[in-house]
Design goal:
Length: 198
Amino acid sequence: MRKLVVGVVCLLSLGSAWGETKVKKQDAKVFYVYKDAGSRENNFCPAGWMGSYKSLKYNGAYKISPQSGTTAIQIVYDVKKDSETMWAGIYWSHPCSNWGDKKGGYNLDGFKKLSFWVKGDGFIDKIGMGGITGQTEEGDSADEYIERIELTPEWKQYTIDLKGVDLSHIIGGFVFAASAENNDKNIILMIDEVRYER
C-alpha cells in the first residue's frame, strides 16, 4: 500500500512539472513534427481527426519509398465512403486531441519556416500549421497555410515562410484538410520530413 501511495505522489509531481514546462522555447535548429515513425525527435500528435474522419486511414510507419529515413506517413481518404461533412483532415497537436481547451503547445519563436514533403494522388485543400482557436486563451497564436495543392507521384517539398509570424504558442503544429467535392476518387497523401527550421 505504501508503494502505491508513493507512486501516486510521484506521478502527481511529474504531472505538475509537465504542466509548467509544456510551453517552452526550443533551442534546436530543427524542430520536427515528423521525422520517422517512433523517432524521439517527433513532436505533436496526429490525433485531431476532423470532418468525416471515419473515411480516413492513417499509417504513420509506411515503409515503401519514404522521402528520407525509413518511414513516411500515408493517409488514404475514401471520398466514396464520405457521407457526412464531405471533407476530412487531421491536426497534429500538443498534447494529443488539444482543441485549445488544454494546457500545452510550444513556443516556436525564432523559427523562420515550416517545410514538408508530400506526394500522392488527388487535391489537398489546405496544408500548414496553426489555426486552433479554442474556447480560451489556449489557442494557437498563428495560422499559415498553403491552399489547393495537386499531389504528384514524385516527392515535392513545400515551404511556408514564418518570418515575422507570432509563434509564441503553437498547439496545432501541422494540419491538412481535403474535400470530397474536389476529388472524384480516393485521395492518397504521403507526408515526410515535417519540420520547423531556424
